[in-house]
């Protein structure tokens, strides 16, 4: 993983805590719903579990009794808890993965894939960039990292399709999103960091995080292979598609004029 990849995943502690709270709430809601359902059917679950013993011993020799006032009720609670843990595991595991995935290397992310496949459902979303669609001068390392994310994700999607696995895979190419990515990132030698922050916020960032999330979730629902976030990403992708490699002659002088001032 490049330094740019590491920097792009940084976020303030409060943002991590808010996201963690959201993931925990969703996991607990899933567990609670499954617990309620299992508790309603606790007697049926109990009968299924003891059926092998009844089948071997015979109905006349398999009368169960409880020796404490609340023992049967506690048994139902335990059955409901174990059932809820089993049934809610795919949702809980998905929430855990979505929280830790931004901090994982690509090969570590792929370690979660067998669990998604076993769950019978799931979707892998990898964030590339518009710099994964085209290259710009002065961003060679960042371009290489984002093109790698694009290639890895597109290959993984094809592997899932060929294997018939029920896991969707989507590459996200965001344009300028109004986040703190520029402020948390590194600047090239000689470039004024504060000027670069202002340049990104005023001239490049055009899409809110909320709108970006809506676009990505809609693409997941439609199982799209690639999603462009923001009108700027759509326009830039269209230019690259039309001009092919000729975009380099168009972008280089424009980007040279847009470069933030040096310190």
Explain this structure:
- The chain is mainly alpha-helical and 263 residues long.
- The chain has two domains: 1-103, no CATH class; 106-263, 3-Layer(aba) Sandwich (Rossmann fold), CATH 3.40.50.
- The chain has helices at 3-8, 13-40, 42-57, 71-100, 106-109, 113-119, 140-163, 181-184, 193-204, 209-221, 231-243, 247-258, and strands at 123-127, 168-174, 226-229.
- The protein has a three-stranded parallel sheet with strand order 1-2-3, sandwiched between helices.
- Strand 1, helix 7 and strand 2 (168-174) form a beta-alpha-beta unit.
- Helix 2 (13-40) runs antiparallel to helix 4 and helix 3 (42-57) crosses helix 4.
- It is elongated.
- The chain starts with a helix and ends in a 5-residue tail after the last helix.
- The model is unreliable at 1-10 (pLDDT under 50).
Q: From the coordinates shown, what is the CATH architecture of the largest domain?
A: 3-Layer(aba) Sandwich
CATH class of the largest domain: Alpha Beta
The ordered string of helix (H) and strand (E) elements is HHHHHHEHEHHHEHH
Overall average residue pLDDT: 81
Are there runs of 5+ residues with pLDDT below 50, and where? 1-10
CATH topology category name of the largest domain: Rossmann fold
Adjacency order of strands in the biggest sheet:
1-2-3
Strand content: 5-15%
**How many domains is the backbone divided into?**
2
Globally, the shape reads elongated
Q: Count the strands?
A: 3
For the report, how would you describe the main beta sheet? 3 strands, parallel
